[in-house]
């Protein structure tokens, strides 16, 4: 059996603990050690969040391909499908190389957002999709990826986050342009 390097083993154990914690009752933040409360973004936390967000982006964009009335919104959605699928696949390769596994379901907050899009009235779908997925979610993703570029321990994950920042900014800019044109 191949022996794993210590940093890889530590990362795998941390990921397993993070995934197990996700299944447990919510922890009181005050009960965590001060270093953990004040600490930076943890690699497993970033990987889980980035993977869930990326999966959501693709699902929301696929929905937009069918529901959007505007050809510009459908074009934007296709761009997101293309870019996020590529980024998701790269992240999955990094995760697999570390022996980690990710949950196969969308995070609860993303399922709720997707449900909002599914139930949006036809006349409001385009604006809602651009506002929620294009603008709000990309603002949050950019902040997460900027933080990851500064705080992650794994240099390959840090590099992946930094490499994908320009694409996320492009998505945000395009959404803001579309949003302004829809007013």
Describe this protein with a few key phrases:
about 180 residues, 7 helices, disordered N terminus, mainly alpha, single chain
Helix content: over 70%
Report on the biggest sheet: none
| CATH homologous group name | Ferritin, core subunit, four-helix bundle
Structural class, by secondary structure, is mainly alpha
Give me the strand/helix succession. Answer: HHHHHHH
Shape: globular
Integer average pLDDT? 83
What's the CATH first level? Mainly Alpha
Question: Structurally, how many domains make up the residues?
Answer: 1
Report the uncertain regions.
1-38
Termini separation? 61 Å
Cα radius of gyration in angstroms: 18 Å
Number of strands: 0
Number of helices: 7
CATH topology: Ferritin
- The CATH architecture: Up-down Bundle
Task: Report on the architecture of this protein.
There is one protein chain. The protein is mostly helical and 183 residues long. It has a single domain (6-14, 42-182), classed as Ferritin, core subunit, four-helix bundle (Ferritin, Up-down Bundle). It has 7 helices and no strands. It has helices at 6-23, 34-38, 43-67, 71-97, 108-118, 125-151, 155-182. The model is unreliable at 1-38 (pLDDT under 50).
